[in-house]
Write a structure and sequence with these properties.
Shape of chain A: globular
Shape of chain B: elongated
Strand content of chain B: 15-25%
Distance between the termini of chain B: 80 Å
Structural class of chain B: alpha/beta
Strand content of chain A: 15-25%
CATH architecture of the largest domain in chain B: 3-Layer(aba) Sandwich
Radius of gyration of chain B: 25 Å
Largest sheet of chain B: 8 strands, mixed
Number of strands of chain A: 27
Distance between the termini of chain A: 92 Å
Structural class of chain A: alpha+beta
CATH class of the largest domain in chain B: Alpha Beta
Oligomer: heterodimer
Helix content of chain A: 25-40%
């Protein structure tokens, strides 16, 4: 059964009087079988958005329904892979069509020939329900893949194969449902990308996503199961920050979505991640990573879908009981794809041409983050870290403003910091994290009791400094009293020695929490000592002359990550040198 | 035999509507023959059943509903390509206009190209020595990069691009071929002429393919110009294994042409009237730069754009900056002070620089020097704004050294002659010489070892 194309306008194709289609159904468009999705159905016409180039398409060519919504194929072999926005494996596409992408190529997303060492965990006669684990296999050397009973399958195990070697499409068990029908189970299943995957229930947020980046972990922590946004103009270092998080954060699985960004950046991620070794496991980082690359010149409708494909893969691994972090670079490109398609549909625009449903789409996406108890009874989480590229670096534009409403951690990148090559260019006065209260218990227990009190002091010093800098800009630093000079000098140490972090330095690129704590403690120790001396009338020039401030700036390079206890010596040295 | 359709149903700006076309395909090329026998070309931009909307590149003046015959060509816009294109001049739509006859085509290529599979890309690493200190040291150009020049009207962006083309030793190794593809969109005849002359002067003219859509040429044709140029460039780079430097000027005119076309179609405008798909459209051009695994050649792009009112947040520079791998920003203040090239160091950036410099590429201390120069020059800006309030005399000793550093940095590092071709060693040594003006403890971005080796304090300047 098929219907005929009536009109074509860019990626939007319309059909007249075609009532056979469901909303959000996946369809094949034209003789080349381009992949599309139904996005509007009325009495008169059906609207389809096409995920591939429509050049050469003719009116009158057929549109074939598939009866199912756009879905992701979930099964072993997702990790280490790189997909486009609608989960076509790019490595296979390369083999199929060469270095330049071709249209109308349909490839099964996973490697059909790869053999997995499967352990079957159910036995005949057992009662099963959706979400239960029926088979496991090592997917990479780091991650064990757990196959879960698909949604809607509830019944008794009628037949089961022995553990052994299977490919993704081999049947490993059969379930007899209540109505008597037999459902075969393979290693993979499908899930519609726009629907959140179910879990037993949500659980509270209490653990941080440790990133090894001092300004994030100490000042603006992200929680496991939380959502964070990184807005910044071009050149402010959004992608660099995302890469750092993807490399070093302590999630089990990373889903990296390159949504409408540069092709070379994806190549870089591919190259770097296969060379980088995860410090915890000693295995290449690719073993825990899946990449979704829909670069800016790839079809715009697939860019819109890429975000959903990514989050669906993330939720799938969450359901296995893993902590997943998803990096979406950049959500603005996704919003622009929405705007572009909305324009082609001649919808009434709201702010700046964006469709009126932009906020609801954003909130739907960010709400898919969370910490849950899975249907199988385990615990898993999805953390979303979305980059935002505001037009003209103006944070008052709709995407940034609406994103701000749905995330609780806001890491604002600042152009002037980036110009001075202060990286990560996270502005400490405009950024915030609402997770502090949720995480305080964890920090007190796992790092140090006084972590948050010290953090508050550090933040206060920085905000005091930015107030003083207003005065300094007008009259110069020399006229300030000594106690205020001390604040400025200490804040300088914090900025250069603590907030600034060198991603290309072997030691500094990732710093464990304990060292972060010790560094913070040492800097504030010097400040306290200094305050006392100044109160006694010791001139600040005498304190500065000890060279302690410059020495503390260099802690990050001078003290290796595993020798943070040596900072105790630093504090002793402060005592000796400042014993006037 | 191809069918001809007599008459049109509607004419509206650059668009004509043709009814009763049975077998048309989206983005198919069409030829419109006017009464006097002249032929115009167009492209189907909207299809609805048997109705086709055709965008006419040469404009619709002189067309009437009766006197026009339309022929559909059965394929999308194609460019005939061959290695003979080098040394030739083409119109914005890819037809030879130098009077030397047609190019004998080796093949026909769709001018829209196809996206490069991210898996097939080779991450660009080899650096290009442009001989210009600010670019080589601080915003290093990498082979396969897209690095635009953000300029404003009246500044020396053309001179700078010409100097890069002349000095870029893009094919330093034996047996590698180098060629330039030049696309002019809406620029004045003088500008095109300046480039032709400077190519001639530097002896590369026989290795340049020029695509010219001058400011008095049809506006809609401007939309094709960069696509034709990039198709030729891709062909030469990825099929003929050459290292291509593609200079495209002026991208702002291109975006304006796109806006004109979009509004004539009655599309919903985005920011400043530009269509909502400006980002995707620009990306479909810029992303054609790169290098491919297993291919000898590479395609490096230097697009030039003029920022209206010197506003970097204007949609064209803004979206460009989000797509390209960095930017070279020119500064009106430096230009007025007589400094050439007037490169504004702080907002300029090369994203691919970090992997293409240092040991094995340029020099081990490169990245440290670059970071320190950026940080120091950023401090100069603070010192200057303070000095403008309290007067230079009142500044502290360190800030005074910074003021000195800033002045010399602009005069000796940024400024250089149009014919001055500095080696990377010269440039980096100059950087150290300038840093030596500052007290050692101010140099916090450099390791102590490097300081010991290169830092020789100078009180004399």
């Amino acid at each position: 059964m098929s219907e005929k194309i009536y009109s074509i306008n860019g990626p939007v194709v319309k059909l007249k009087e075609a009532k056979a289609f469901q909303m959000m159904e996946m369809v094949y468009v034209g003789n080349r079988r381009l992949i599309g999705e139904v996005i509007g159905v009325t009495e008169e016409e059906t609207t389809v958005q096409v995920y591939e180039g429509t050049t050469g398409l003719k009116a009158g060519e057929p549109v074939i329904p598939t009866g199912a919504p756009l879905s992701a194929t979930l099964g072993p072999g997702i990790l280490t892979n790189i997909f486009d926005g609608i989960q076509r494996p790019l490595k296979h596409l390369e083999a199929e069509s060469g270095a330049f992408l071709a249209d109308g190529v349909e490839i099964f997303p996973l490697d059909k020939e790869r053999v997995f060492d499967v352990t079957i965990t159910i036995s005949e006669g057992a009662t099963v329900s959706p979400g239960m684990i029926y088979a496991t296999c090592p997917e990479t050397s780091l991650i064990t893949h757990r196959c879960m009973i698909p949604a809607g399958v509830k019944g008794v195990v009628a037949e089961v194969m022995p553990s052994g070697k299977y490919r993704v499409n081999d049947t490993v068990a059969k379930i007899r449902k209540k109505d008597g029908s037999l459902v075969p189970l393979t290693l993979c299943q499908k899930w519609p990308v726009r629907t959140p995957r179910p879990s037993a229930h949500r659980i509270g947020i209490e653990r941080p996503l440790v990133t090894g980046q001092r300004v994030i972990d100490t000042l603006f922590p992200i929680a496991k199961g939380g959502a964070a946004a990184i807005p910044g103009g071009f050149g402010a270092g959004k992608t660099m920050t995302q890469h750092q998080l993807a490399k070093w954060c302590d999630a089990d699985i990373i889903v990296y979505i390159g949504c409408g960004e540069r092709g070379n950046e994806m190549t870089q991620v591919l190259e770097e991640f296969s060379e980088l070794i995860d410090p915890k496991s000693g295995k290449p980082l690719t073993e825990r990573t899946v990449l979704i690359a829909n670069t800016s010149n790839m079809p715009v409708a697939a860019r819109e879908a890429s975000i959903y494909t990514g989050i669906t893969l993330a939720e799938y691994y969450r359901d296995m009981g893993y902590h997943v972090a998803i990096m979406a670079d950049s959500t603005s490109r996704w919003a622009e794809a929405l705007r572009e398609i909305s324009g082609r549909l001649e919808e009434m625009p709201a702010e700046e041409g964006f469709p009126a449903y932009l906020p609801s789409r954003l909130s739907e996406f960010y709400e898919r983050a969370g910490c849950v108890e899975t249907l199988a009874g385990g615990e898993g989480s999805v953390t979303i870290i979305g980059a935002v590229s505001p037009q003209g670096a103006d944070f008052s534009e709709p995407v940034t403003q609406n994103t701000k409403r749905f995330v609780r951690c806001f890491l604002a990148l600042d152009k002037s910091l980036a110009y001075a090559r202060h990286y990560p260019a996270i502005n400490w006065t405009t950024s915030y994290s609402e997770y502090l209260d949720d995480l305080s218990l964890w920090y007190a227990k796992e790092v140090a009791n006084d972590f948050f009190p010290l953090r508050r002091k550090l933040a206060a010093l920085l905000s005091e400094e930015s107030r003083l800098m207003e005065i300094v800009k007008l009259v110069g630093a020399d006229v300030l009293p000594d106690d205020q000079k001390l604040i400025i000098e200490t804040a300088r140490v914090i900025r250069l020695g603590f907030l600034q972090q060198n991603a290309f330095h072997a030691e500094d690129t990732f710093v464990p929490l304990k060292k972060q704590y010790e560094m913070m403690k040492t800097i504030l120790y010097l400040y306290d000592k200094g305050t006392k001396l100044i109160a006694r009338g010791v001139p600040i020039s005498k304190i500065l002359a000890t060279g302690l401030f410059d020495k503390l700036v260099r802690i990050k390079y001078d003290i290796p990550n595993d020798q943070f206890s040596r900072l105790e010596e630093y504090r002793k040295e402060i005592d000796t040198l400042l014993s006037f | 035999m191809t069918l001809q359709f007599i008459g049109l149903s509607q004419i509206n700006g650059p668009l004509v509507v043709l009814d009763g076309v049975p077998d048309a395909s989206y983005e198919e090329m069409a030829e419109l023959v006017c009464e006097d026998g002249t032929v115009r070309s167009g492209r189907i931009v909207h299809l609805a059943d048997q109705r086709a909307v055709i965008q006419v590149y040469e404009g619709t003046s002189g067309l009437s509903l009766k006197n026009t015959r339309t022929r559909l060509l059965g394929h999308p816009m194609r460019l005939s390509v061959s290695p003979e294109m080098l040394g030739r001049v083409f119109s914005g739509a890819g037809r030879p206009i130098d009077g030397l006859g047609e190019v004998y085509p080796e093949k026909y290529l769709d001018i829209n190209g196809r996206p490069i599979n991210p898996v097939s890309r080779e991450y660009p690493r080899s650096y290009i020595n442009t001989g210009i200190s600010t670019i080589d040291a601080l915003t290093t150009l990498i082979r396969g990069q897209k690095l635009p020049i953000f300029s404003g009207s009246g500044m020396d962006h053309n001179k700078l691009a010409a100097q890069i083309v002349r000095q870029a030793q893009i094919a330093e190794e034996e047996g590698q071929e180098f060629a330039v593809v030049f696309a002019a969109m809406g620029v004045k005849n003088d500008v095109a002429d300046f480039f032709r002359k400077s190519f001639e002067e530097s002896g590369v003219l026989s290795r340049v393919a020029m695509f010219l859509n001058l400011s008095n040429d049809p506006v809609i044709e401007r939309i094709l110009t960069p696509r034709c140029a990039l198709t030729a460039a891709e062909y030469l780079a990825f099929e003929k294994g050459m290292h291509i430097l593609c200079v495209m000027t002026d991208m702002t005119s291109y975006a304006e042409a796109l806006r004109e076309f979009s509004s004539s179609r009655g599309e919903i405008p985005g920011r400043k009237g530009y269509p909502g798909y400006l980002y995707s459209d620009l990306a479909s051009l810029y992303e054609r730069a790169g290098a491919i695994k297993g291919c000898k050649g590479s395609l490096t792009q230097i697009p030039i754009l003029t920022m209206p009112n010197d506003d970097i947040t204007h949609p064209v520079p803004d979206l460009t900056g989000y797509i390209t791998e960095g930017q070279i920003v020119l500064d009106r203040y430096l230009d007025q002070t007589g400094i050439y090239p007037p490169i504004s160091v702080l907002p300029s950036l090369s994203r691919l620089m970090k992997d293409g410099i240092g040991e094995g590429y340029t020099r081990a201390d490169h990245s440290a020097v670059a970071n320190q120069l950026f940080a120091a020059y950023a401090h100069v800006a603070d010192a200057r704004s303070l000095a403008s309030v309290i007067g230079e005399e009142e500044l502290g000793a360190t800030d005074k050294r910074y003021m000195k550093f800033g002045k010399l940095f602009e005069e000796r590092f940024i400024a250089q002659n149009f014919y001055d071709n500095r080696s990377i060693d010269q440039t980096l040594n100059l950087g150290w010489e300038l840093l030596s003006i500052l007290p050692r403890e101010e140099l916090d971005r450099v390791d102590s070892d490097l300081l010991d080796k290169y830092y020789h304090p100078r009180e004399d300047i």
